[in-house]
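Q: For a teaching handout, I want to show students what a protein-ligand complex looks like in token form. Below are the inputs, and the small molecule is tryptophan. Please produce the holo structure.
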Amino acid sequence: MKRIFSGIQPTGNLHLGNYLGAIRNWVRLQGEFECIYCVVDLHAITMPQKPEDLRRHTREATASLLAAGIDAKTHILFNQSQVSAHAEMAWIFNCVARLGWLNRMTQFKDKAGKNRDSASAGLYVYPNLMAADILTYKATHVPVGDDQKQHLELTREIAGSFNSAYGVEHFPMVEPLIFGEATRVMSLRDGSKKMSKSDASDYSRINLTDSADDIAQKIRKARTDPEPLPDTIAALEARPEADNLMGIFAALSDLSREAAMQRFAGKQFSSFKEELAALAIDSLAPITSEMRRLMADPGHVDAVLRDGAARADAIARPILRQTQDIVGFLRP
Ligand code: AMP
Ligand code: TRP
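A: Here is the structure, written as tokens, with tryptophan included.
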């Protein structure tokens, strides 16, 4: 059986990178797989969050997913803290994962920064919780952006290590699904940094809540270079900002990067940016307006999450129980 699990953090500012790297792929996979999508609030508090912001961002992330086309009736959409199996499984994995494995994680190094001693212990064991999210459902496929690849390798390592330590074939080997022409969308201000929710400059990203004017403005101001657009992939790849914008264009128009590039080869950035802005606005406007409509009805959003959590719990609980039996925990 094929089962999808993926998660997104409710830390505000959902952006075009989240959309093209993850959310849009989640929507498309609904036709083929049983899908479980999670707003990962336990992950969010690995960095400080104001309670009011966390509540609002959890609803906002849920509204964006619904607005983008996640079908919460056929599939499952919920927030992580409502299903306690995640935290219980994560403890078991804290005792499976080795410090050496966690020490290799680049996301921890990036997020902890220079002052590592003051990072939370949660931030350090975050990948174990992510493995728990996935394996508590025995999910087989995980659609994510490129930045999560290393965490999925760790998930496989944890599953394999658990299976061999206890001599069982309990957890499956998960397959990452990283696809499309925009698996790593970069900042509009700096082609060497990924587009991120936490970048201090709002001009670095296109938020799913941005107006058409904001989007046009941000794309017009996006950093580029003075040369006309290239006509070979090698030349494109040597120019990170051009490459990033071309990747976004390709993804939004469902073209290959090669085809998108040929369309603009030899042209100036100004005309390319105009087309890109129009395309981005067309693609995002319906999502933004549906999201606003949903945010006006938090009661509905909360009900979706509650219903999703109950159905998620029904899958997770028996798998947690089996795992606890394997480990040797006594229960009545
Ligand atoms: P996060 O915002 O860290 O919770 O990420 C949620 C999902 O969006 C994950 O699958 C990430 O890999 C994906 N994602 C986040 N930032 C980007 C980006 N700049 N480009 C592509 N995918 C991204
Ligand atoms: N760590 C992921 C991120 O920051 C979010 C996440 C948490 C996730 N649990 C997951 C993604 C399980 C896929 C599967 O983007």
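A: Two things your students might notice: The chain has 14 helices and five strands. The domain at 202-293 is CATH 1.10.240.10 (Tyrosyl-Transfer RNA Synthetase).
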